[in-house]
Amino acid sequence: MRQSHLFTKTRKEAPADEVSKNAQLLIRAGFVHKEMAGVYSYLPLGVRVLSKIEGIIRREMNAIGAQENRFATLHPSEPWKQTGAWDGVDVLFKIMSRTEKEYALGQSEEEIATPIAKEYALSYKDLPLAIYQIGQKYRDELRAKSGIMRGREFGMKDLYSFHATQEDFDRYYRVVQEAYFRAFSECGLIAKATEASGGSFSEKLSYEFMVLTDAGEDDIVYCDTCSHCANVEVSSEAEGDLCTKCGQSTLKKARASEVGNVFDLGQKYPKAFDFTFTDAHGEAQYPIVGCFGFGTTRTMGVIVEKHADAAGIVWPESVAPFAVHLVDLSGSDSDKKEFVEALYSDLLRAGTDVLYDDRDLRAGEKFADSDLIGIPFRIVIGKQSTPDSIEVVRRKDGTVTKVSRDAILKGAWHF
Amino acid sequence: MRQSHLFTKTRKEAPADEVSKNAQLLIRAGFVHKEMAGVYSYLPLGVRVLSKIEGIIRREMNAIGAQENRFATLHPSEPWKQTGAWDGVDVLFKIMSRTEKEYALGQSEEEIATPIAKEYALSYKDLPLAIYQIGQKYRDELRAKSGIMRGREFGMKDLYSFHATQEDFDRYYRVVQEAYFRAFSECGLIAKATEASGGSFSEKLSYEFMVLTDAGEDDIVYCDTCSHCANVEVSSEAEGDLCTKCGQSTLKKARASEVGNVFDLGQKYPKAFDFTFTDAHGEAQYPIVGCFGFGTTRTMGVIVEKHADAAGIVWPESVAPFAVHLVDLSGSDSDKKEFVEALYSDLLRAGTDVLYDDRDLRAGEKFADSDLIGIPFRIVIGKQSTPDSIEVVRRKDGTVTKVSRDAILKGAWHF
Lengths: 415, 415
Hints:
415 residues, five-stranded mixed sheet, 2 domains, 11 helices, BirA Bifunctional Protein, domain 2, nine-stranded mixed sheet
């Protein structure tokens, strides 16, 4: 894409009321537009990143046999009243229609997913069943802070699983946990799974997926030798204690941000909706339900917090808005201008996802924009460039290398 | 995908309160789940169709230089009050938060898109600017009917364009019109563009894209010789009149459904948000704004209305949930069972998007389900099948042909 065509421009300053690093950088670089506290629109660069994060978690969900849906977000009030959440969930947005019907906005989708599962899962042969969606969620937060990391409207992948037995839920939890670890890792994050307290709609235990970041809202202790990790809010363990799980190492303490969670909801929702299946002995049983959340916009925010430096964002390659940033510094040199235009066309032909800074600006402005936007590799065409020697810069550490035009078209801009 | 894994099952009956053909068929075949009047969840088969429709319109929008965004759907009340739509738009859902802040749910996005454009379009050099999104819309309809064709929550592609001059808007309208005609045509629909009355938020003329269908809510007259078309509600022309545009043919009358629309909004929104750009003479000017809607879920509903027969849905290939339906009728013949399993694996390897009915059901049940779901081609493996002769049936007309296994793997299931 030509940068002269990209309608967003970088800004020197973020809005004065925006204190979080992720929102400041994302607004300055033109990824998001703030509508109000906790609500952002995603602009073309932001849509590219979010779509890649969604693609990563979608692939992982499909790989473990979960089936994609798009649940309604405007809900009738009846199922919420049936489960008690209409009055019990304080962040639930409620709407009164012109005809005085009450609706809720989805903040989680048990009230929609459970009746759908009830309709199709009649026998133990239909279980386990795992259905998910990727979409918007709404929460009436008293205070929205942390930029896109905690919103009143936000993006989420939410998976609901239905099991014949507790053992099958426990097995599936481990399957999803591995999928989550892979997804977060591909997003450039290191996630740890903690045991934590139940949420307002949980009967039983819940687990949290935490990413180590100073911008986090939680304190965790974790073991480097085994996978043990606990939220200090609900754990009696402290930094320096010997790990209670492996007994091999002392625990470390860190700030962390919750990017995913699991609720073992037991039989609460099936009981509310009178949802039973027929087991192998012909008996009616309530299934065990799990809810697995993965914050897509939140993950984008955490990535920015983790991967940024004084000059701007440093996207991991897996979620970068473009793979490579081609910067034209040919100035008044028409031969070089022709050279960079031809290179851009050839990169597109080679299937490279390239942002081409073809704007008439000074080198300093172009480099500052490029650093702020944070595309992983930068190809610079200046007066010194020749077909045998073109400068490529790696954003994350500034490493510079020289590559031939032919090598670049074969993908050697990536090193 | 194995049909034994697909969690939805077909149903003999739709809910009693569902009168529209599109919703009846989509519910019975397992594409959607009704949450309440005008609100549906999309199940895996439905997600596949909707994603394809979205892909078609996304490609057309990108091809005309429009840039994709995801605008917030939970809106602050301030911009709605600024334009007068807070009190002026009767279908606007309003929400009161716990902290007594008022929000609106997006029913159109001028109130979000215009301030975003204002931030980035400063000069005539930044115009024209075309920004769009594909997402959910909400309307507080008094009556929701027509299944997924008119909802309280529905999917839409909405494009907002900003122009320095009226002439440029007029030029761009023709560009978008051609893109829409291509998109509807690829969806298996024939669309006509009418001139129609302005909507509640329009200052000026609006245009409608209508698809001829008996399930439509409008009456149009149109000319077969030229492109002339008018909504009879706003036209004095009648069936049998000589076309006022080309004078060549007499007008025909038909029922039609509105699947897209264009509003020439003039300078109303820029004036409300004090959005000016600097023209070539250094003068501040208000841009001209266009809004171009394309109903994605509505298009899905109209496709079902247009392409269905007594046995079920008949998807056009471009939007079908799967390209081909492989039906196993091997019964107790273990050699044939092995044959169909190997064919399924090889079709997947060949990159074919195949639904494989591997369920243990009678032929009649499998064919009835296959007809109802409406995948364009069906490969049937029964006792008579040999590597040289496999039956392929075209859904839309029941044409049967025999093809070899090798030819099938080369795509000859498609004829």
